[in-house]
Design goal:
About 35% of the residues lie in helices and about 25% in strands. It is built from 8 helices and 12 strands. The radius of gyration is 24 Å and the shape is globular. By secondary structure, the protein is of the alpha+beta class. The strands form 2 sheets. Strands 1, 2, 3, 4, 5, 6 and 7 form a 7-stranded antiparallel beta sheet that branches. It starts with 6 loop residues before the first strand and ends with a helix. β11 and β12 form a beta hairpin.
């Protein structure tokens, strides 16, 4: 399991112990879409052993599986036009908006059982000791959907999006304008997005970020909302102003990686250990670079976990 993207949350109080946690997830297992369902979702095991809470290296892993029926609006509308023409020929007048809506709903119900399904899996990574929860997705909507389903499964989910004491945008803007201010182990990459107060955007990709061209935009008052960075010469990633992380890539070759002859579970366990080993110090370093966790959030978490 390689980490490519994640949205980062802070736990406001501890989650249930593993036994209770697994029991709650078992009450919401994944079941395939019924013939008249547009979508379905539920918890599945990340490994062949079948456990819904995989635990190792101080972390817990959950896996939400989602299945959706692929019924494009263009297909429904094509059939709908035929139905409307048939109605006009039979009745001698155009159907009202209410009748059109009913025709569309009837068509959707008739076409759903014939539609193909597409499934996806979204991992949820929890670090109980650090009080972190991460949805390994590059989509804010997907992260919201997953945390909403987990909240429903647990009868409550005490989390808040991570927030640093200093503004990420202002910190990133400072780094871009003065690269010497970057903390040790951090370096600029080759991508940036800047925005001004009116919403005008400037994007540079595969670009030297130490150019006068970008300084002109900084002098004009634009601030950074996305910045490509490299941590410890190994982790390349795009940092966004909400502290979500995108397009993670490990730059150094890893030793003792399992071969093709190893089992799928063995390869998974190796990747999971590797991810945990770099992810915790990486996030700690990022928070420190941003001035630490927001003081109110840190105080709330400290009280809850003390």
């Amino acid at each position: 399991m390689q980490v490519r993207n994640f949205y980062w949350y802070v736990l406001n109080k501890p989650l249930p112990d593993r036994v209770d946690f697994e029991k709650k997830l078992e009450s919401k297992p994944f079941e395939p879409c019924m013939s008249q369902q547009l979508s379905s979702q539920g918890w599945v095991s990340a490994v062949s052993s079948g456990e819904l809470v995989y635990e190792a290296h101080g972390a817990q892993l959950l896996m939400l599986k989602q299945e959706k029926r692929l019924l494009p609006a263009s297909v429904v509308n094509e059939y709908l036009q035929v139905k409307i023409e048939e109605f006009e020929q039979a009745e001698g007048f155009s159907p009202s908006r209410k009748i059109r809506q009913q025709l569309k709903e009837d068509l959707t119900q008739a076409l759903l059982p014939k539609a193909f399904t597409k499934s996806s899996r979204t991992p949820v990574l929890i670090f109980p000791k650090q009080g972190w929860l991460m949805v390994l997705s590059g989509s804010a909507k997907s992260a919201d959907d997953v945390t909403a389903y987990l909240r429903d499964s647990l009868d409550g989910l005490p989390i808040s999006l991570v927030n640093s004491d200093n503004s990420p945008s202002h910190v990133m803007t400072s780094w871009l304008s003065n690269p010497l201010s970057l903390p040790q182990d951090w370096a600029l990459g080759e991508e940036v997005e800047l925005q001004d107060a009116e919403g005008a955007l400037v994007r540079a990709r595969n670009h030297d970020l130490l150019t006068d061209e970008l300084n002109v935009h900084l002098d004009a008052g634009k601030i950074v909302n996305k910045l490509h960075l490299i941590w410890r010469e190994n982790v390349s990633f795009l940092l966004q102003d909400d502290l979500s992380i995108k397009r993670i890539k490990l730059l150094l070759e890893q030793e003792e990686a399992p071969g093709d002859s190893d089992s799928q579970d063995a390869r998974f366990a190796h990747e999971f250990a590797l991810s945990c080993n770099w992810l915790i110090p990486f996030c700690q370093s990022l928070l420190a670079a941003m001035g630490g966790l927001d003081k109110a959030l840190a105080a709330s978490q400290s009280r809850a976990f003390s």
